[in-house]
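User: Hey, my collaborator sent me this sequence without any context and asked if I could get a structure. I don't really work with proteins. Can you help?
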Amino acid sequence: MARRLRISRRIVAVVVAVLMAALAANASPTGAEPFEGTNETIRNHSLVFAAGSGHTCAIDSDAQLRCWGAASFGQLGQGNQNTIGDGPGEMGSNLPPIDLGTGRTTVAVGVGSGFTCALLDDGSVKCWGDNPFGILGIGKSQGSVGAHPDEMGDNLPPIDLGTGRTAVAISVGGGHTCALLDNHDLKCWGFNTAGGLGQGDSLIRGGDPDEMGDNLPPIDLGTGRTAVAVSAGGGTTCAILDNGDLKCWGANREGQMGQGYKASSLNFGPGSELHIGDAPGEMGDNLPPVDLGTGRTAVAVSASSRHICAILDNGELKCWGAGYDGRTGRGDSELIGDEPGEMGDNLPPVDLGTGRTAIAVSTGQEFTCALLDNGTVKCFGWNFWGQLGQGHTDDIGDDPGEMGDSLPPVDLGTGRTAVAISAGSQFACALLDNSELKCWGNNAGGQLGQGNFEWVGDDPAEMGDNLPAIDIPSAGGPWLDCHDRRPTGYWLGEADGTIYPFGDADTLGNTTLASGTTLVDTEATPTGCGYWTLRADGAIGQFGDAPDLGDLDLGSLTAGENLASFSPTPTGQGLWAFTDRGRVLT
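Assistant: No problem. I've predicted the 3D structure and written it out in structure-token form, which is a compact way to encode the shape of the chain:
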């Protein structure tokens, strides 16, 4: 267990604030990428908030977006550069929602290093904040958006994703952004020195007018392959494909691509061997999927700049890349994935405790947080700021005996569990089962929303009931606010098509089953005001406010393969269906 030197908080806060601003503004094409934000876990709850480098954003109960923390580049979208959350009286009703345009609401949010992106209810994407390397995708570089009046709302155009195209999911990295489109294409733009955009070169995209829209090719993921999930890191990108494979590309200095080798130098571009995606012939069918183990597929992924973690179809969590400070949870600080024979069945899962599995994962700059099947949260890795939430600053996961049952869950308060997590650069946040949002770790920009600059989680008695929830309008998202009430119930379906409501869920109807078929799964809409049902023959029923999504084409199923479950897209306008062999149908 590595122990960290304690120094003055005030001095560190000032230094870190300056460093974060410099990093976001002056990332060098030959240096390290700025830190990525994280905003992807398994279920819709994860889309309600995102933690980044020095600011945090959450979608409130009216589907309005509110952000707080550092504002040097207008990343809070308030038309100024005033930090929010570091002084009293700045949160709650005093925190205005961001103007994203007339009649527009927010479905998902991603936070990067000095910039923010939102997926809106009409499928459009808007980004604002710092804009080096065209990371905002607005056809110009440098400058910023959101730091001055009249730059937001209807004056901020949506990103051109291509003729007739909309987005169903977004992921924001430190200096680039990716969007999964309605036609299953995947497009990324922004910083690209190590090939993180997957275009076979190291050219920045999004900074010139002719680089977006139809001029931005979708990423080649292989013959017949499409993406169902994406995670953008700091110069790295990973996508889960429709067959459950995981592919990663970009910076590979520590083996974070999981291919059994690493880049031969700290340089970038086609001349630097063994990064992936920065030279022709490295993508598509030429890029092997990450070996997760015999018969294993991925259901969730989170990419950081130097390590990557994935949840497998059996609930195991595997991490690889730079293991410094214990961020891969292996009980050492070794690189994993940089040499042959380290991946696949040779890579043991992270020990989360007896009988425990992961349902969500989020990688911070040098640490990792996992949401477990019992609603607890465990974080491991670097802990200088208290971002592991243990009341001390000792690193965890870098020595034997620190993981598994020896690692206590983060204390979220008496009787409280988490439904979503997001790890920022040096802090972490959890959405609790009562819709409260709590954050801990570095607070140099007021990103913890406590009205001060104090770190949280580095000293005893700062967590649990002693950590106040952030004062914002309900952090639970629009699916927790239905018809002027807040549903806390749910629906369960029997194989015979009978739907049972629990709690305050409404009785909306049962599924009519054709002879010889059964009900496979039931999923609530993003609003919580309705649900879909999936039958074994691919028929999809809709109840309440669930839109008609049509039925699934089962023509691609192999002999003996059956539907196992399904999940709606973040907008509720599409779905992914999963088979009992780990494949994904869209």
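In plain terms: Confidence is low (pLDDT under 50) at residues 1-47, 265-272, 476-490. You can pass these tokens on to your collaborator as they are.
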